[in-house]
């Protein structure tokens, strides 16, 4: 993510830092996680408003006409409009471009100022969106929201990982995802109620509510402490010590402080990280930074997140019922993410991803088949019974639950934890960009793809789920309980990735920048020891 951003060092090398979750850290994380709320609110809000008649009538009259008047239109093509999808997808292009600028701001001015800017851009975007009376204002507002998301998604995970004790980092990283799902759920609930408002006000209220999480993060970031890592980067060592004492809740922070200073020195010595990550020995980490977010989006999750209300309307739900179904799905998404938080360090990443993959595959195949049976290739169906529509909803829920305890949180966690220190920030930047890019692509092409591929589109995404599940089985090493600094060892013992690392590169840098040398046997033993750590 950030150019030279550091993540605080770990207990590698047998050292232990104070790992208490102080109230201070907890509150800090709650405010910082509003960055997740912002992101989630945007994901969840667009599907609902684009299904509201008054919204379509104001900005997309041709889509409204197609939906209302042309009874013969196939369900697959009812909502096919490049402009309608541009409303949803424009945010992600802006987020993608902003995350690069945000990475500079995070380094130059600190993490909290990046979060602050995100909050302000978001408030502006929400204001313009809520008062929009033409398409230009609508898209402009959406682009500003994208700028807000770009800042938040870039700075918040770094902030969280630098402020929390190493042992709690995995759980707190997923807390960011929990906030994303809560943001989606809140948006779904707000859409449900605002849809009942007569006249053109419903969608305006929905879009205006985005100011709430944005204000939390803007105001919150003013009162949050800057991270010790960032303070050290700016030469403010005494302030860094004081902050460290406050957030760890202990007086003796000398060990952690020394390691942070050493890590900072190492970061400064690092050559251009973009050329480093291209080196052969980093091939496994580069591959993961690209493929994990790519696969996450190719699960097809955002089809449901962005367009579920339209899909439900198309399969026969009324406007209100389709928004209620979206609330149900949003609830399942949040609860299943909670399950992931509880189980991720016990079941492990591979277990969750393999299980999630199989469950997603089965449910996608069933949803595709149900739609194929009812609507065939023409997309025309006259008698869709309520039980049939509910059955579609049920299997979509099964799919969502599987995503939410596997690829949802782990699609963010794994790239953030497998990268070694020297390529961590650049690797994160790649992961975020790939995620945003494919979110954009899927948001932009889904409605057109549905019109052309019809029910086959569901099987298309099911095919990708097969590919990613096989990939996890064969190529993803288990990262559960491996300290961040020792992650590099995993590739050395892996049947495939070990070929990219020469024997003389069989070293791993310790916290203080001293290279530890391991033989192959030591590597294997050490990985096993780390994994079995409680
Ligand atoms: C994904 C988003 C998705 C959300 C759904 C996140 O992990 O990155 O694209 O909308 O999960 O909960």
From TrEMBL:
Organism domain of life: Eukaryota
Keyword Aminoacyl-tRNA synthetase: no
Keyword annotations: Membrane, Sugar transport, Symport, Transmembrane, Transmembrane helix, Transport
Entry GO CC: membrane
Chief place of localization: membrane
InterPro entries registered for this protein in UniProt: MFS_dom (IPR020846), MFS_STP/MST-like_plant (IPR044778), MFS_sugar_transport-like (IPR005828), MFS_trans_sf (IPR036259), STP/PLT_plant (IPR045262), Sugar/inositol_transpt (IPR003663), Sugar_transporter_CS (IPR005829)
Major facilitator superfamily (MFS) profile domain boundaries: 28-480
GO molecular function term, any single one: symporter activity
Listed CDD domains: MFS_STP
A UniProt-annotated Pfam family: Sugar_tr
Topological relation to the membrane, as annotated: Multi-pass membrane protein
PROSITE patterns tied to this protein: MFS, SUGAR_TRANSPORT_1, SUGAR_TRANSPORT_2
Localization in the cell: Membrane
Residues annotated as transmembrane: 21-39, 84-105, 135-160, 172-193, 205-224, 286-311, 323-344, 351-373, 393-414, 426-449, 455-476
Family: Belongs to the major facilitator superfamily. Sugar transporter (TC 2.A.1.1) family.
UniProt-listed NCBIfam families: SP
Name under which the protein is recorded: Major facilitator superfamily (MFS) profile domain-containing protein
Upper taxonomic lineage: Eukaryota, Viridiplantae, Streptophyta, Embryophyta, Tracheophyta
